[in-house]
Automatic annotation (TrEMBL):
This is Nitronate monooxygenase family protein. Keywords: Flavoprotein, FMN, Monooxygenase, Oxidoreductase. InterPro entries: Aldolase_TIM, NMO. The lineage of its organism: Bacteria, Pseudomonadati, Pseudomonadota, Betaproteobacteria, Burkholderiales. GO terms for molecular function: monooxygenase activity. Gene3D superfamilies: Aldolase class I. It comes from Paenalcaligenes hermetiae.
Amino acid sequence: MREQTTLPSVLQGLRLPVIAAPMFTVSYPELVIAQCQAGIAGAFPALNARRPELLDQWLTQIKQTLSEYQSQHPDKPVGPIAVNQIIHHSNQRLEEDVEICLRHEVPIFITSLRAPMPEMIQAVHAYGGIVLHDVINLRHALKAIEAGVDGLILVAAGAGGHAGTLSPFALIKEIRAHYDGPIALAGAISTGEAVLAAQILGADLAYMGTRFIASTEAQASADYKQSILQAGASDIIYTDKISGVHGNYLRQSLERAGLDLENLNQGPKGKIEYSKEQGAKAWKDIWGAGQGVAAIHHILPTAEIVNQLEAEYRAALDAVRRFA
Ligand SMILES: Cc1cc2nc3c(=O)[nH]c(=O)nc-3n(C[C@H](O)[C@H](O)[C@H](O)COP(=O)(O)O)c2cc1C
């Protein structure tokens, strides 16, 4: 396992080596605040704010709430805020959203799809922030390293939302051969023992999305949260038909939208026009989730989820020590 002291200072001092993953239509300020107050890094996608002005307001609100909380609880670790930026020509808000996050000195930028621009990375470094980029394979990782990112998020098979297909065992070993910097591992990590396993494999941190959908603070509907509890790993369907990029979704929501699962992945590559006929919208009615659903049995406040993760993490550490 790697020493946490090798991490950028913003990632040191977390209560657990966990970054909560940003989730479109799920991670809003209430969840981010609860995650940071629980001592892990809290994240949301900039695009969850319907307009850039709202992003500005959210950041003011989150920072203020966390700063008050920290002064009332000086001994508690309060996690840093991370904002996700989608680097793609279709994201017309990118420049404005980045400018707002820079102004607020957001400590962690999480970039997805394309590698981030060097000017953006420099601007984040200017106030001591860091940029983590999420990748699903070595080719994307090498591009991000070349662009000068401060760390990689490896999105392995079974992750919620847009996910890769590679086993975490293979992915981390392959990328570690080229990169000694900070790595967060993602994909079906829903328990404290899985967080420890990620570290044993060579990651510095775990990156967890699906586990937090079934939290009281997540913006997901009651039905969405219930189907997370009911689903097993085989109820997660991997397809590019919903957004055009391969991702993992809950079977129940695909069936409710009237999609023919037997033949879903047949036909030409890419998104299908299901929404006009069925009236279902990606992410809102078609629910993203990873194979880690199998380990989720209760909807809990985020503080309790993190307590549970910590207890599981410590029990797993003890078990490893006994085994050793
Ligand atoms: C409902 C949902 C929405 C997501 N939205 C985004 C997003 O907007 N941007 C992004 O970079 N990743 C997004 N992701 C991916 C997560 O950030 C993360 O990679 C994934 O949840 C980790 O795997 P896990 O869900 O198995 O823990 C989303 C995932 C889910 C489940």
